[in-house]
Amino acid sequence: MDSTPPPSSSSAFDLVSRALGRYIPRGGATTAGSADARGDRPTGPRVPDDPTASRQEQILGAVNLDMDLYITRCNLDAPVFRGLEAGAGKSFVELLPPGDVATVTRRLRQVLQSGEAHVARIQRLRRGDGSELVVSMSILPAAAPEEGLTVSLIAMARRLHLYAAETAIGTSLDIGETAQSLAESLLAWGDVAAVDLDFAVWTGEGVSGKGQGRIRLRRAALVPDRAWPEGYMTPGDDLPGDASRLLTQAVLRDDAPQTIVIPDREAVERVFGSPRVARALVPSDRSAGVACIPLVLDGTPPVMLGVAEVWRRADCPFRDSELFDLQELVARTAHHVDLARQHQREHTQVLALQRRLLPRTGGATVEIASVYQPATPDSAGVGGDWVNSFPLPDGRTALVVGDVVGHGLGAAATMGQLSMEARALLSAGLAPDEVLEHLDETVSMLDDADSGLAAGYSALGSTCCIALYDPVRHDVALSSAGHLPPVLVSPDGHAGPLPVRPHPGLGAEFALREPFDVYTFAAPPGSLLALYTDGLVEDPALSIDEGIGRLAGAVSLVHPWDALQQAVRHIVSAVAPARQRDDVTLLLARMIGYRKEDTATWRLPARRDAPARARAQVSALLRQWRTRDDTRYSVMLLVSELVTNAVRYATGPVTVRLIRSGQGLLCEVGDTGNGRPRVRRVDLLADGGRGLSIVHRLTTRWGVRWTDTGKVVWAEVAR
What we know:
Blueprint: H1 12-18, H2 53-57, E1 59-65, E2 71-75, H3 101-114, E3 118-126, E4 132-141, E5 149-155, H4 158-169, H5 175-186, E6 192-198, H6 199-203, E7 217-223, H7 241-251, E8 260-262, H8 265-272, H9 275-281, E9 288-297, E10 303-313, H10 320-357, E11 366-373, E12 383-391, E13 397-407, H11 408-427, H12 432-446, E14 463-470, E15 475-481, E16 487-489, E17 495-497, E18 519-522, E19 528-532, H13 544-556, H14 564-575, E20 584-591, E21 599-604, H15 610-624, H16 629-649, E22 654-660, E23 664-671, H17 691-698, E24 701-706, E25 711-718
Antiparallel strand pairs: 1-2, 1-5, 3-4, 4-5, 6-7, 6-10, 8-9, 9-10, 11-20, 12-13, 13-14, 14-15, 15-18, 16-17, 16-19, 19-20, 21-22, 22-23, 23-25, 24-25
Helix pairs in contact: 4-5, 4-10, 5-10, 10-11, 11-12, 13-14, 15-16, 16-17
């Protein structure tokens, strides 16, 4: 190894090396209780703790790397680093456990590219004999004009390790990563470390009122990463029922969580009384002792979240001070595990809500496929993106996509409320622009932290786009509130965004509010409509127009025979940014519509003979369709009553439309009136009021939708 450089040097490597003299014990030799060649654990019988040992445990080292991450210089003369094969010309990654190579390499290259230091990473290093050393590793860029990196290594004192470990464990809200960080920190005290969590903690369920005797443990983390003997529990495995029960009872003596130490394999077998259970818990055939430390959440009574286990060779018993340190580390980090559990619960709830809002299927007139892709698996919560599609009772299909501001449960609650409100209003027959007006008022109301559902959370600026597909007229009516324009691919292959005028998002200030526009465009059978959220097309390397253009190009490549669900996944993988910063949502709708021979429309003047003329036209068509006599009679009576009401209570022409679908016959009668028909209790002596009662009895469902010129009363009759 290279010697310490002269004091005149000012590189990061030299500055770290210059500090070594303040931390290396005089003479370079170890004393009782200090670090030996395998770390800082004793090699003989238990000895009293040396009060001066802590000052000798913090040892510094430095390694210089070139641009290819090969070692050019190193200063690892302290005894604690003995066994690290870190000679000049060797790759630094050869010092790392296989499971850490990718992560550490990525960190090293990030510092090379950005010039920003990465400080105090808890890291394991491999010695030549296969043992490992836990260090605090900092990555520093070399000072100009030098190139490369300086990696400083601190074989940490116990107190420093406790602080650094707690800091590292609290950096993630993912339950698996939190358990893994805890296990990696515990490895400083043994050869193998494992974290077994209560199954309810792993799934994010509540644990506070649970009987402690019914804890079911699942292995959440295990280090080091290596091939283990057959039968040994690895991450994701449930511990045998006997092991969970006995381990829980052992650390809950007198109903109080306590750390226990089982000195060797024979004692383990005696405690658990089963060779099979011993094979599941003991990491090797060699005799090994274990310290079991309960993960406890403070409370009355305390709640046990799981058990942390540290295994070491039977000839290296745990010192009392080590057990105190282990208990302190686990106690300090138990709340991080509980925070991860709460996040897991919230994450699961939001995902369940997201999946419930995703379209289930299309229908006879439109084919639907969608993808929802969260930004990152370990994000602080799923975003507020949603897509929905559903058939309306009058035969049309609603396509809705929205993007609620923010992440987490507040955004999810607002997303669910807006989605359900939009569905209810559309099913009631409101036009897309009217629905957006109501959603705009809802978002403004929810911004009031005292009265809104999402108190303390603001959804101002959320966006939404609503499209209604009419399968008879083969057109789409669309309204947008601040959303990016949908992409339409015509049957001839032409693709491009729809010319939708930009509009402020939902909940905009009163001065900025404008009436919502309704755009109606043709969508003949074979057309493909893509609705999406901004996470799919926003890429720092491209303008938003270029992103939308890429999406249009990808959608235009979908062949009419392609399976739509497979196509939507391919589009997302091809278009979504490489570094996804926001949730990605895409909805594809392939228009099918009704055949021309399955629909008929008549326009009649609002005269007394209109009901008779309508009956004659409908009767002739139903005979042509070979409809059953009872169905034909019901439809004729239904049309007669609806046309009679239209002539009596409205003005202008009356439009009659009949649609043959797979489920039944849909009858529509439109007029210029704006009154809402209602079913009332009929007086036996009254002259009128029976028409809608007859409609109600003859149909499977009926309703009203509003148009620019009046209303349409629709009713469905089973075939």
